[in-house]
TrEMBL record:
This is Fatty acid desaturase domain-containing protein. Pfam families: FA_desaturase. The chain crosses the membrane at residues 171-200. GO terms for cellular component: membrane. It comes from Erythrobacter litoralis (strain HTCC2594). Coiled coil: none annotated.
Amino acid sequence: MKQAPEIYDYLSREDIAAFSEKSDARAFLTLSVQLALFAAAFALAILWPNPFTIVLAILLLGGRIQAFGVMTHDCAHGAFFKSPWLNQFVGKWIVGAAGHVPLEAYRRYHLDHHRYAGTPDDPDKWMVKNYPVTRSSLKRKFIRDLTGQTGFRDLVREFKTFTWEGNGPTLVFHLVLTGTLTALGAPWAYLLFWAARLLVYPAIHRLRQISEHGVVPDRDVLDARLNTGTTIPRWWERLFIAPCNVNYHLEHHIFAAVPPYRLPALHRTLVERGYYKHHDCIAHGFGDVIRRATRPDEVTPIAA
């Protein structure tokens, strides 16, 4: 995405170079934390099986599926690991596989989103073009998500477009996951993944889409402060909805080469230097996102 010249009034070339520096150690730490949470969700349900731990495990897994997708996104940009080989391998065979995201196909599609954001050619615009929507409309969308209708639709699409090159890593992931859980004596726990994938993740994914481009002042201009949003989440929202700093989407659109572990520092610097002044582009929590994304239902006048 082309940057408005004003950004260079707030960041020097040296600043940009520092924020864009990749670290394999920090990337591995981010990946390790998310894999540990993924394993902990299964362990929680297997070791203490009860309705509370089962629900909590499913919610945690939904957040991890989101995290795997986010890390695949960062690998697709070459903005996670310093090593291009690691971005490719981890993006395809680990996080892309677990998140059901074919790396190469996603990269081709997503780079067009960055190239054309703020123009009619943005391939993601259709997802958010009607926001704000009525409260009843958003409620219907979330009902479809939480009852599995959206997840099942997406799964059918995956089956119809299956190729070994694109989806083979996901098949391998599921074979490894089922084999591991069976070896642990808990093959039933495999269903937890699908409960998260079909019943929880679609709602999380929708919230992310809305927060990024659904609550912005103007999707048809090039200034990222007008066509993209950032959300400052609460701690539990980071855990379940916005892992891996995916909430700093405006900053990501300004400089897509900045790795996710440096986005908070970039955000703080831009706030301190007044880049967002006079722009209502930062939501505080996902409750604020929903408020911005909705409008009151239309009231039909009662005939006299």
